[in-house]
Specification:
alpha/beta, 42% helix, globular, eight-stranded mixed sheet, single chain, Rossmann fold
């Protein structure tokens, strides 16, 4: 557990283990605690770095609007804080969008890049989903029912309904907290102008793009577009899975990430 200052803001991060550094970037509603089930496998061979970005978890809140580019600059400052020249990055959903910003702006700083359930462009459809979230944010229950069910695949939701009911009891009080929902609105708005379609081809890093079959937030065509623009890219589709792939299929998720990041070979002669 540690903190550093970025543009006058207190930023929280954690490091676990030793080895090749692996930075994990949260989805929009997540924080460092969200990765607790993954700390052990992710830190067994790697120096795992967890980060609460601005407006997330134990990092400071923002006072006004901003774009995701500031989150990319925050990562650059974190590398300076840790005296790292190059890192592996795993970004899921919102974190994947920030990872794309970072890989475009600081290409020489990325070794391996894993993009899960993410997009390089906030389409009018996705922007309207975000607007729906923002309009429901004044009521904790409405915000829960607007945001959470669609994050999961129908199969997972039905087969794990007791778990989902417990999540509801946990999340509705959090979603009723004004400071939290204010952060969520700013985070959502920060993604509203995302459009890296003409720039992602600049990314130099070996990249793994992960889709989920039943992702209703960032469906597979969003990831396939990214794949079509990258030079050094691999692609995986997780079957029977929704947007929250790390929770629905944690073993497969971890296997894909660690297998890709820690594979010492990039070229095979068969």
């Amino acid at each position: 557990m540690a903190n550093f200052t970025f543009q006058g803001k207190n930023i929280y991060y954690e490091t676990h283990g030793e080895g090749s550094p692996l930075l994990v970037l949260n989805g929009i509603m997540m924080n460092c605690l969200s990765w607790n089930p993954f700390v052990r496998p992710f830190s067994r061979q790697n120096r795992l770095i967890l980060l609460d970005m601005l407006d997330q978890g134990r990092s400071d809140k923002m006072e006004g609007p901003y774009t995701q580019e500031i989150q990319a600059d925050l990562i650059r400052a974190l590398l300076d804080e840790l005296k790292l020249e190059k890192i592996n990055i795993l970004g899921i959903s919102y974190g994947g969008e920030v990872a794309l910003h970072f890989a475009v702006k600081y290409p020489s700083c990325v070794d391996r890049l894993v993009l899960s359930n993410t997009t390089c462009y906030t389409s009018p459809w996705l922007r309207d989903i975000g607007e729906g979230w923002n309009r429901a944010a004044s009521d904790g229950e409405a915000y829960y029912y607007t945001t959470i069910p669609v994050i999961y695949s129908p199969k997972f939701y039905l087969e794990n309904n007791e778990w989902m009911e417990n999540r509801k009891k946990l999340l509705i009080p959090i979603f009723s907290n004004k400071a939290f929902v204010s952060s969520m609105i700013r985070l959502t708005d920060s993604a509203s102008t995302l459009d890296l379609r003409d720039r992602i081809s600049e990314i130099q890093a070996e990249t793994l793009v992960i889709s989920s079959e039943f992702d209703f937030i960032t469906p597979p065509p969003e990831q396939k577009f990214i794949v079509s623009r990258l030079r050094h890219v691999s692609y995986a589709l997780m079957p029977d899975c929704g947007h929250a792939s790390m929770y629905e299929k944690p073993m497969l998720f971890a296997s894909l990430v660690l297998g890709f990041v820690n594979n010492c070979e990039t070229l095979y002669t068969v």
